[in-house]
Amino acid sequence: MAAARTIIVAGAGIGGLTAALSLAAKGFRVIILEKAERLEEAGAGLQLSPNASRLLIDLGLRPRLASRAVMPEAISVMSARAGGEIVRIPLGEAASQRAGAPYWVIHRADLQGALAAAVNEHPDIDLRLGCQFEDVTSHAKGLTVVQRRGDIRQQELAQALVGADGIWSAVRNHLFPAMQPQFSGLIAWRGTLDATTLPREYTAPRVQLWMGPDAHLVAYPISAARQINVVAIVPGTWNRPGWSAPGDANELKNAFASQRWPATARMLINAVDGWRRWALFTLPEIGEWTGGAIALLGDAAHAMLPFAAQGAGMAIEDAGVLAKCLSEAPGNTIADIPAALKHYGRLRRGRVLRVQRTARQQGRIYHLGGPLALARDLAIKAIGPERMLARHNWIYDWRV
Length: 400
Prior knowledge:
By secondary structure, the protein is α/β, with parallel strands linked by helices. It is built from 14 helices and 19 strands.
């Protein structure tokens, strides 16, 4: 088959599916290679701020997402030291109208399901499950991508290959084998619970962010507000790769002991019956994103700490910019692809680097203790809710 207008995307996560839809909207034929036999939920909830939801809406996904997503009224910033809320950052309809797109919280499986449904309906996208990227070679006609399903190997010609296959990316390992994930020393624990099991004040449509010594806790409604997603971040040495290993609840409860955390925060911890955990890995900030007609996207290029709630958002943004750069390649020929992808990397690198550093800085702020925690709480109160929201305008107001 000819390579003309064919792009192969490795990985059917949020970034890969969004890239496929964005590329198809620009007139490309897209093949998605996904090694999993079926798409399953990895992780639980995620936050989609306007920079990400805007692009998804532009792809026609609002009807599929609006019925499952929750638009939080506010972000309640809570302090373990103070014992409760220190500021409430307004969101809701007013903030969404100002940004021109909603702030949504959603179950990751609902988002992936909506993207997959749109992909399956698109005549120019071929989603191949149980089929993984194995190798790629470049030549005058473009790329030959080798894919494997079981013991069967198949070759496909393409203009470009997009590695959207996550932090342990096989595409990145082929392109930049020295660029390896680094363990952050932090572990994320996640659980969900039925919203009816909590008192009403815990189930309001808002994001709760609890800051405390060496740990923090985030909770918000998902699945049309029927469930509450709870994520706790604590330091640790366990660093197995993966997204969903079983965790001992007693270990987490000890990290949120009563002498350091108020009863209201511990109630969220105690209400979750089953915890899963994943070690937080990141990639070096100086890593390359492209090589010839191959590009990386999302966690494969820039896995970051989740403390700016922008991991999915940055992957979605990558997808939009990648499709735009490829569609605007001057001659629209195979020879133009490497320059177009290099331009994509230049456009994205500075913004993503700033988000990575913001996430890392916010994590340090969240985990302060003693006098530094008091100073933090007083500073947040002094800034006030409106200015706290405005501090994120540079993230939320982005457009492709």
